[in-house]
Amino acid sequence: MSRLIPEEEYGKKPAGAFRQWMSGIRDPYLGNVEVKARAGQDENEELLKEHQEEVVSVIRKVHDVANNSQYILFRKFYKAAALICCLTLTVMLLVTVAYLPPVGSADNPAHNEVAAKYIEDGLQDTGAVNIVTGMILDYRAFDTFGESNVLFIATCTVLILMRNDKKKGKGSAEEEEHRDSFYEPKADKILQTAALILVPFIILFGIYVILNGHLSPGGGFSGGAIIGAGLILYLNAFGFEKTERFFTAKTYKWVSFSALSFYCIAKSYSFYTGAHHLESGIPLGTAGNILSSGLILPLNICVGLVVACTMYAFFALFRKGGF
Amino acid sequence: MDFIQNVPFFSIMISMFSGIVSSILSEKWAKRLNTAVILAVGVMSGALLIWLCRTGCGSYIFMMGHFPAPWGNEIRAGVLEAGMAMFFSIVMLLSMTGGRKKLFDEVEYSKHNIYYILVDMMLSSLLALIYTNDLFTAYVFVEINTIAACGLIMIRQNGRTIEAAVRYMIMSLLGSGLLLMGICMLYDLTGHLLMSNIQQAMADIMANGTYRIPMLVTVGIMTIGLAIKSALFPCHAWLPDAYGYATVSSAAMLSSLVSKGYIFLLIKIFYRVIGLDIIYSSHIIGILFIFGLCGMLFGSFSAIGEKDIRRMIAFSSVAQIGYIYMGFGLGTQEGMVASVYHILVHAATKSLLFISAIGLTEVSGGSRSFFALNGSGYRNRIAGVGFAVGSLSMVGIPSFSGFVSKLLFAKAAIINPTWKMFPTVIVLAISTILNAIYFLKTVIRIYTPESALVEEEKGYYGIRWNQQRLYTVTIILFVILNLILGMNSQPVIHLIETGLANFA
Questions:
Q1: Averaged over B11-22, what is the pLDDT?
Q2: What ipTM, to 2 d.p.?
Q3: Which residues are CB-contacts of A79 (< 8 A; sequence separation ≥ 6)?
Q4: pTM to 2 decimal places
């Protein structure tokens, strides 16, 4: 191909760079994205050999699976028993399903006054256009409070398992994070650009889902999960240095504390007034407005905050053992 | 409505709120808050119990929110519920104080406040299981209870506890899954989640004969789910590790409270959801009876073969859970009373045994082996006394609590003679002897003096009561609780009878 400029100069122009990339002459990743090879282990052959022999002898002595007749018998029995149990349970449940009321039939027992009232009076009672939200955050708010506490306590147990309280030195959280993300590409341009474009929209959409929980499908749980996903994407693209500017363990602690305590106190007030047949004094507003349906909107926000923080905390804990 | 009727609602809410608040408190304040909340719940439930007895109103319904029952949530309180709540908080408080020193040794200090969060949440879920009148609420709190129990097991971090927690989680989730499936099918068949409404629909179904088969399966899988979660005999494989290796407060609470919460829920399901007539005429009760009997024997056999003292106590739990299910299996009012009484006895005694065993192993160089315990009853006198009282009670020596429940079981079997009478009485006798074998041999061993030479060589040391004041007070209170249950059983039995009568 005849060209006016020399090959070297042409390679610097975008069109040339693209052509070179297409024909495989050039890899733009090379040298730009930090991928480091695994550091070489001690190449001491004797040590390696000794170690291998040790492993083999342990396997031979302890897990002599092939010749341990008791173990083999147990494995066989175990497999057979597991198979029988599972099959029995499966067959039993399948047979039971055949006897259950047919799906969609109008005279099923489940179509009774409970569902009817939710549908007929739901809007009037709770002020929420979305009946499901009205049910979970007003009619049966006690269950939902329990459910958000399930999330809270699940984070606590993950904290026990994963939080690394060692600040410095070997085995500390910093070191673990370093080791964990050592072999991963950092500062990936594609991911960063995509995240930069997507994250604002994801978080905005999450906020929309939460705020419109009482008007349209969605609510605290789903909106919170969307926001959490956005935060995780951002963390993956930019690393902990960026996210720790606005989200640390302290932020998590205070956000989930304030959301859950608001939920607890607000609902306690509502339960108390309800049980004593008092007016709660919380206006329901005009149905269909953003500011309507009494406590449901703030409760949705609380649930959303808890869920978003929990999602992010899980990811950060698995990644680094703290955040 | 009297102000005191708010007690169930208040106790559930403050225990939950304290869990939430503990997440921002320091370890020290979380501990204080935890103690204060358990005390407050105990005192309030006691007041409610007294009020209920005095006014003679059987039970009442408390609306959780502005909407009445089938639409909103509600809780229901009666004599038995209030009594259970009070008893559970007493046992929980004593378990916490008794294991406090060990908690510092075994759990990272920076994670202590998480421990208190878990305990607060555990308390709230137990209270909710006790008071709830709605099956779905029950399921939500079963979930909290399961996760909290896993956390309590693995907060002492070593390989064995992690393995125990994983096992516990798998078995427990299987139980929860079956329970949830049962609740779903029950909703499909009856269209209700509220216990009293389901019972009505259930009676109609049984009378009409429609859906009888799925109903039987539903009842069966719910019962089996809860039986797995409370470690009934063939499904007890998770138990010894979970109770044997967790930190001692956790072990005491898991054995005496968590499994009992599920059993209490099962009683509630029998009475309020299924109805006694239906459950007593089904074969499910017979299956529970047989597995209960097997548990009584095999739990004791495993305990006899065990060389690790804490695992031995854990295996004894399998036997005691067997007693409780055997009582259900008798299918009579007396059997049920005996079972409920045994719940109390086992909760009070098993936590005492765990707490005192830890005192004995501590002065034996930390070795949990049965053979290292020689003379430890002299080195740590109060722990020795506690262990002896607990053992005598489990064996069933008169004037200790275990005697009364065994007497009640035997009486319940003989009063209504059916084919179940002979197996019950015979297995009860065998099981008592087996109990005596492994508990009394331990008691004899801890009171066999070790020669001073060996003690010096192994570096054993004695602990006096003023070096462990909190521990001593805990053991004394446990012993008193045991003696109250053993020597003053009539009022308690009367309470259980009236409570169960109001239950349906």
A1: 93
A2: 0.89
A3: none
A4: 0.89
